C-alpha cells in the first residue's frame, strides 16, 4: 500500500483540511513490524499466548497503528518535506488482524511565524476510535505568502 504523493506547502494549508486513508491489517504486517522494530511481544505474534489475555487473540502493535498516521503526514497532509515535531497518542481499543483502520488527519491550527501545523489524528475501526492524538509538524514553505483578499 503506497499513497500517492501530494506536495503541500504551508501556504496551501487551511484550517479544517482533511486527508484520509484506510489500511486492512494483515498477519504479515504485524510480523513485519515485529521484525523491523524488534518488538516480539507474543501478544502480537502468538495466537496461543494472546488467547489467554483479555484481548482473546493477537492484536497489532499500537505503534503500528500510529505509523499509519505517519503515512498520511509524510505523503498527503502536508506531504513530502514535512518534519515531525511531536505526536501525542491515546490508545483506545485494540486493532486485530483483518481490521480495516480508517485514518483521518485534520488541520486544527496553523502557526505561520514558524511554518508549523497542529493536526488532529484519529484512527478508527468500524466507526470506533482505536487511537487518537495530535501531531505538530513543520511544513515546507513555498516562499510566497498568500495575500488575503479584502
Architecture overview:
- This protein is α+β, with helices and mostly antiparallel strands.
- The protein has a domain of 89 residues: Roll (Thiol Ester Dehydrase, Chain A), CATH 3.10.129.10.
- The chain has four helices and six strands, in the order E-H-H-H-H-E-E-E-E-E.
- Strands 1, 2, 3, 4, 5 and 6 form a six-stranded antiparallel beta sheet that branches.
- The longest helix is centred in the middle third of the chain and has 14 residues.
- One of its GO terms (cellular component) is fatty acid synthase complex.
| Structural class based on helices, strands and sheet pairing | alpha+beta
β-strand number: 6
Multimer state:
single chain
Q: Estimate the mean pLDDT confidence.
A: 93
List the helices and strands and how they pair.
Blueprint: E1 18-24, H1 27-37, H2 42-45, H3 47-50, H4 62-75, E2 83-87, E3 90-91, E4 100-111, E5 116-125, E6 128-138
Antiparallel strand pairs: 1-4, 2-6, 3-6, 4-5, 5-6
Task: Record keyword descriptors for this entry.
single chain, alpha+beta, Thiol Ester Dehydrase, Chain A, six-stranded antiparallel beta sheet, 4 helices, 6 strands, 22% helix, lyase, fatty acid synthase activity, MaoC-like_dom, (3R)-hydroxyacyl-[acyl-carrier-protein] dehydratase activity, HotDog_dom_sf
Compact overview of the structure:
The protein has 150 residues and is of the alpha+beta class. It has helices at 27-37, 42-45, 47-50, 62-75; strands spanning 18-24, 83-87, 90-91, 100-111, 116-125, 128-138.
